[in-house]
């Protein structure tokens, strides 16, 4: 009885706001009653073990902000083959002291064309190629024992065109046709096209696809086999929420809600970042806090810093717990290629100006490409030509620029606009692959330094770090994708290759490339054990008086930790005004910040107790 009262108490806290928002958006009392029944049913179905986790997390709501948070993202099949085999690889993950594991989409999907799993056929069922729901539940249980929270993608914006809802719609069922945006002629689609940007203008032009079975046009923002859901229909929100709660009860602790800025459609707008999006995310947050407060939301919001704060909501009415830090990732790579940290510093300053409730997952590489969405206004202010700079960056990381150390490929190159994105693993983009091919030991030494510099700077930022699986052993590009007819058309498969277990065996052998990266990642975890990585630490940039050197300061109480990062291949001086006092390195060497000399690609950490 006391347990049920726990749910009733949580629900009472949110009842008025949840019901008001639902009725304001949908004016549908029946839909609200269905939602509330689904919430109660999900709570009753939740295991005692997960309810205990709910209680512990409720007592420690900032658990995901602790300095010991250390994440990794991977594809289940590329790492281990399937979920059962992945569970057997748990010692490898524990060895890295992971606290967070993000598995790329693993719900039932069409094959072979599924956009890397982001075309979902069934939101409640694991893809048979990867295992069963029981395998997933067993994996989450083992991960919890190891102190690792599992994150899964939840695709908010669309379903696969082969989802049962879409199949019913094709068969003429009006109930499920209302789950999508369908039009008998081009009148309304043409109006949308006037204001809605295209996501993939070359590979998937237009925002609508003709469905011959229905003789209707379907809104398809991404690919023609991904049908946009109609969130103006309350049944869509209720059913999608039911699926999230089902996955939460299998032990998923973090949901990366994919493409969330796109989910509400309105004629005459860009169909991005509309107010109703925030109503939906806020309602989802409240549902989780009522049913399973251990579970948190991570938003995928690929927008400028000024657009991000809204997705966190307010301290009184929160939405996402954290977001992907996309823009810093892009600026880190830009700073490395240009040997200039000014754009990176400006972008970090914009992030640091956001409210205190904003929190980020920082990373260098993930399943996706690097899209060169830099701040053009800041570029112009700094005297940088935005178009020429973008072209330089993607040609540099393609390896198609004089003096480039990188080996990568272009993604979505558009000769008409001169736009393109970049693909490749961290190691290959930092020069390791090229150095190994040339058997150049000096070049390899510099490449490893670049790799560790970027990882250290990324791990120093506000938020917590997430590695791309394989980065810890310097995994190189997987060029063999070009021999696979199902993968060859998508250059992102260059960095979506099978995990190299033979290389992983070298991680403990001193002097090997793999050991250097493995030890470098361990040093990141040691760095983040410092009290200055507590959730309430103050983080800011500092003027280093050298555009090639990024200076970051972390302060908590009387303790100050300074990170200096030389993004150039030359020795560099730095001078940090107004940071007086005696600082020392982890080894105990004294450093005077008024005049610091850094080695090429050096990350220097110094600290003082004041």
UniProtKB/TrEMBL annotation:
UniProt cross-references to CDD domains, sorted A to Z: AmyAc_Amylosucrase (cd11324)
Q: Which domain of life is it from?
A: Bacteria
Which GO BP terms apply?
carbohydrate metabolic process
Q: Where is the Glycosyl hydrolase family 13 catalytic domain?
A: 73-525
SUPFAM superfamilies for this protein = (Trans)glycosidases (SSF51445)
Gene Ontology molecular function: any one? amylosucrase activity
Q: Which SMART domains match?
A: Aamy
The name this protein carries in UniProt is: Amylosucrase
Q: Which organism is it from?
A: Faecalibacterium taiwanense
């Amino acid at each position: 009885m006391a347990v049920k009262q726990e749910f009733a108490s949580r629900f009472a806290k949110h009842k008025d706001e949840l019901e008001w928002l639902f009725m304001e958006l949908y004016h549908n009392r029946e839909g609200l009653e269905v939602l509330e029944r689904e919430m109660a049913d999900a709570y009753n179905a939740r295991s005692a073990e997960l309810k205990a986790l709910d209680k512990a997390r409720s007592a420690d709501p900032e658990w995901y902000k602790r300095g010991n948070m250390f994440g990794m993202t991977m594809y289940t099949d590329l790492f281990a083959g399937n979920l059962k085999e992945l569970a057997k690889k748990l010692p490898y993950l524990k060895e890295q002291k992971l606290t967070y594991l993000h598995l790329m989409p693993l719900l039932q999907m069409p094959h072979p064309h599924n956009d890397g799993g982001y075309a979902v056929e069934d939101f409640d069922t694991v893809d048979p190629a990867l295992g069963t729901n029981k395998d997933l539940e067993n994996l989450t249980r083992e991960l919890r024992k190891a102190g690792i929270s599992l994150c899964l993608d939840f695709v908010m914006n669309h379903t696969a065109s082969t989802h049962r809802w879409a199949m019913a719609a094709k068969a003429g069922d009006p109930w499920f046709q209302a789950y999508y945006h369908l039009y008998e002629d081009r009148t309304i689609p043409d109006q949308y096209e006037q204001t809605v940007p295209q996501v993939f203008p070359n590979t998937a032009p237009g925002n609508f696809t003709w469905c011959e079975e229905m003789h209707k046009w379907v809104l398809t923002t991404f690919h023609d086999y991904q049908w946009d859901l109609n969130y103006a229909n309350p049944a869509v929100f209720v059913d999608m929420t039911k699926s999230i709660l089902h996955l939460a009860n299998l032990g998923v602790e973090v949901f990366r809600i994919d493409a969330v800025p796109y989910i509400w459609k309105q004629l005459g707008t860009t169909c991005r970042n509309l107010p109703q999006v925030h109503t939906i995310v806020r309602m989802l947050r409240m549902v989780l806090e009522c049913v399973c407060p251990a579970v948190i939301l991570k938003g995928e919001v690929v927008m400028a810093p000024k657009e991000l704060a809204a997705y966190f909501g307010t301290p009184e009415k929160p939405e996402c717990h954290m977001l992907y830090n996309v823009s810093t990732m892009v600026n880190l790579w830009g700073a490395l290629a240009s040997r200039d940290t000014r754009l990176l510093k400006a972008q970090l300053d914009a992030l640091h100006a956001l409210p205190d409730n904003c929190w980020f997952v920082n990373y260098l590489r993930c399943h996706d490409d690097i899209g060169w969405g830099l701040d053009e206004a800041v570029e112009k202010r700094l005297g940088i030509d935005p178009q020429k700079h973008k072209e330089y960056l993607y040609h540099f990381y393609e390896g198609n620029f004089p003096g480039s150390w990188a080996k990568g490929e272009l993604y979505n190159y558009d000769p008409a606009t001169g736009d393109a994105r970049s693909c490749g693993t961290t190691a290959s983009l930092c020069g390791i692959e090229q150095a190994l091919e040339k058997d150049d030991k000096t070049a390899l030494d510099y490449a490893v330094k670049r790799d560790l510099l970027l990882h250290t700077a990324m791990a120093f930022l506000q938020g917590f770090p997430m590695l791309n699986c394989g980065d810890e052993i310097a995994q190189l590009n997987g060029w063999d994708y070009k021999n696979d007819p199902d993968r060859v058309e998508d250059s992102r498969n260059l960095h979506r290759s099978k995990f190299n277990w033979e290389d992983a065996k070298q991680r403990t052998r001193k002097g090997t490339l793999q050991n250097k990266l493995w030890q470098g990642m361990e040093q990141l975890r040691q760095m983040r054990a410092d009290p200055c990585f507590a959730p309430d630490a103050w983080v800011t940039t500092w003027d280093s008086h050298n555009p090639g050197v990024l200076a970051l300061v972390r302060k908590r109480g009387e303790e100050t930790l300074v990170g200096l990062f030389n993004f150039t291949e030359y020795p560099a001086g730095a001078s940090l005004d107004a940071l007086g006092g005696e600082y020392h390195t982890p080894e105990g060497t004294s450093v005077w910040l008024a005049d610091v000399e850094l080695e090429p690609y050096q990350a220097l950490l110094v600290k003082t107790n004041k």
